[in-house]
Amino acid sequence: MKIVIINSSPRRNGNTAQMCDAFRKGVMATDPNHEIVAVDLNDLNFKGCQSCFACKLRGSKRYGKCSLNDDLTPILEAVNDADCLVVASPIYLMDLNSSAKAFLERLCFSLGSYETGYRSLATREVSVVTIYTMNTTREYAPVRAMDNVDMFLGHIFSTPHRLCSYNTYQFADYSKYVTEVFDETEKAKQRENEFPKELREAFQLGAMVAMKNNTIVR
Hints:
The chain is α/β, with parallel strands linked by helices.
């Protein structure tokens, strides 16, 4: 089983990275023989969709494939060969961050055809997990933005299983920053009591994916 984990956060050890790592550990604890491709988008040099429409060109060898050639190209190829895709993004301005959006543009537009019914050009049914981390609480989570992403990935591959981490702890030392709108004590309690639960949920989902051998039950 091949699993591709896409982390769009620029923070190597931040909340999003920890959620991805918990999922990975859950997979490996169940079956260490699974192949895991872990990608930090912030390390790559790539652009979003350039609207060249080469992926829609009739009779082209690149039909259904992004024609741009950059650091993202081998990652898109790895996704096409995967059994499970994990897309993880922090929420910036009530939406996915720019790296995640650029990745999804390249992935979903090339595989989403203009054929009747917008037929998916994916060569296999890939299980999908989406992970969203955010500074806001569950009450104010950008559900519409997350639903939009999950809709596109669901059309191309399969309905995603969504994991969310809310009210995240942003700074190691809040006293160094101007954060009058946040209660550091409340944030610390969330970090201590709720974030471990969210990490456990990610671990358990990784274990379930490994045990079910590419089948996610919602």
